[in-house]
From TrEMBL:
Family: Belongs to the CutC family.
Coiled-coil regions, chain positions: none
A Pfam family matched in the record: CutC
Protein name: Copper homeostasis protein cutC homolog
C-alpha cells in the first residue's frame, strides 16, 4: 500500500479548485450541476480551472442525471471539445436499463479519448452485476480507476464490498484502482486503509457549510492529514 493516499476533491469552479489544492488535494474532479450528481462542465470553466491550479483534473463526461448515456454523439462531442481544450483525464460510465454496462456508449466515448486515463464512476454501484461489469470493461484503453461506494446507499453500506474488491486487486477485472467516494466519512478511513484502499474522493465533506458554499481549504487539509 502506498504511504500517501490519493485525495480527489470535486471542484465546480476556480474558487473550489484553488481551495482544494491549497488544502492538499492531489486531483480534482471537474463537474457542474451537483443537483444532477455532476455533469460535464463548460469548456470555459475547465480552462479557467486548468489555468488556476497545477494538479491533475478529471473532467466529467455526462449530459443528464442518471446513468443512461442518452445521445452518445453529444458525449463524443463533449469529449472532443474537452480534449481540444487540453483535458487529459476523464470520468464517465453508462448503464443499460437492465443494469449491464452500456459498452457501445462507453467504447464510443473512450475511442474519442485516444488513450487518456479515465475513471468509471459510481454507475458501478447501480450495476446488476459488479463483477461482470468489471470484466466487461477490463480491456478498455485508459481505464485506471473505479469511483465507488460499494453500494448505491453509500460507503457505510458498501464497506464489505469495497474491502472484498480491494482484496482481489490484480485479478482479471480488478486491475483498476478503487477510488472510494459517496457518503465517505473520516471514520471510514482507518478500515479502508487497513484493507488496502489508497484513493479517496470527497465532495460534500470538503464543504462543511453546504453545496451552496465553496470548498473549504481547512476541511480538505483535515482529510489530507487523516489519509497520510
Amino acid at each position: 500500500m502506498s504511504n500517501r493516499a490519493l485525495l480527489e476533491v470535486i471542484a465546480l469552479d476556480v474558487e473550489d479548485a484553488v481551495a482544494a489544492q491549497a488544502g492538499g488535494a492531489d486531483r480534482l474532479e471537474v463537474i457542474t450541476d451537483m443537483a444532477a450528481d455532476g455533469l460535464t462542465p463548460s469548456r470555459e470553466t475547465f480552462a479557467a480551472i486548468r489555468s488556476a491550479v497545477d494538479i491533475p483534473l478529471r473532467v466529467m463526461l455526462r449530459k443528464a442525471d442518471g446513468f443512461a448515456a442518452g445521445d452518445v454523439s453529444r458525449l463524443v462531442e463533449a469529449a472532443r471539445e474537452m480534449r481540444a481544450e487540453g483535458a487529459t483525464e476523464f470520468v464517465l460510465g453508462f448503464l443499460n436499463p437492465d443494469g449491464s454496462p452500456d459498452l457501445a456508449a462507453v467504447e464510443a466515448v473512450v475511442a474519442e479519448l485516444d488513450g487518456c486515463r479515465w475513471t468509471f464512476h459510481r454507475a458501478i454501484d447501480r450495476a446488476a452485476d459488479r463483477d461482470q461489469l468489471r470484466k466487461a470493461l477490463a480491456d478498455l484503453p485508459g481505464l485506471d480507476t473505479y469511483l465507488t461506494a460499494g453500494s448505491a446507499a453509500g460507503v457505510s453500506e458498501g464497506l464489505p464490498v469495497l474491502l472484498a474488491e480491494a482484496a482481489r486487486a490484480g485479478e482479471p477485472g480488478y486491475g483498476a484502482r478503487i477510488l472510494v467516494g459517496g457518503g465517505l466519512g473520516l471514520a471510514h478511513v482507518p478500515g479502508l486503509r487497513a484493507g488496502g484502499v489508497d484513493a479517496f474522493h470527497i465532495g460534500g465533506a470538503a464543504r462543511p457549510s453546504g453545496w451552496d458554499r465553496p470548498v473549504s481549504a481547512a476541511a480538505v487539509a483535515e482529510w489530507r492529514e487523516a489519509l497520510g
